[in-house]
């Protein structure tokens, strides 16, 4: 379950999973779609029914449910990164303002 991890730890876990899955059949149930984008076969379920299947590229080309979910998660991720960067920028400005106050 990598969906609760931050980006850096998700990468570490994903690399470990990639190594563990080499040369074996592996079934992964994922909400975080970055976890499965290297899979040979991806099955997309809606209401318990398979609505799409293929690899990442073919499902993205299909531009259906899977592609919509990937785009949604990517926009959420980019928004999160931007918010983090804005927070870091505010922290730098606050640190600089405090530095100026005392020097």
What would you note in describing this structure?
- With 103 residues, the chain is mainly alpha-helical.
- The chain has one domain (7-102).
- The protein has helices spanning 7-21, 56-62, 65-102; strands spanning 42-46, 49-54.
- This is p-glycoprotein.
Helix coverage percent of residues? 55-70%
Average pLDDT:
79
Provide a count of the helices: 3
Unreliable stretches, pLDDT < 50, 5 or more residues? none
What structural class do you assign from the helix and strand content? Answer: mainly alpha
What is the total domain count? 1
Radius of gyration: 19 Å
Beginning-to-end CA distance, first to last residue: 48 Å
Number of strands: 2
Largest sheet: 2 strands, antiparallel
Query: Element order, helices and strands?
Result: HEEHH
Shape, principal axes of CA atoms: globular
Question: What is the beta-strand fraction?
Answer: 5-15%
Strand order of the largest sheet: 1-2
Organism: Adineta steineri
InterPro entries: P-loop_NTPase, Type_1_exporter
GO molecular function: ABC-type oligopeptide transporter activity
Protein name: p-glycoprotein
Provide the descriptors you would attach to this structure in a database record.
103 residues, mainly alpha, two-stranded antiparallel sheet, 3 helices, 58% helix
């Amino acid at each position: 379950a990598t969906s609760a991890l931050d980006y850096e730890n998700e990468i570490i876990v994903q690399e470990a999973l990639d190594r563990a899955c080499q040369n074996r059949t592996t079934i992964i149930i994922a909400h975080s779609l970055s976890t499965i984008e290297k899979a040979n076969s991806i099955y997309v379920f809606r209401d318990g029914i398979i609505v799409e299947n293929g690899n990442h590229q073919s499902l993205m080309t299909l531009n259906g449910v899977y592609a919509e979910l990937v785009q949604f998660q990517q926009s959420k991720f980019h928004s999160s990164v931007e918010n983090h960067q804005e927070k870091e920028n505010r922290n730098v400005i606050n640190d600089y303002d405090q530095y100026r106050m005392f020097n």
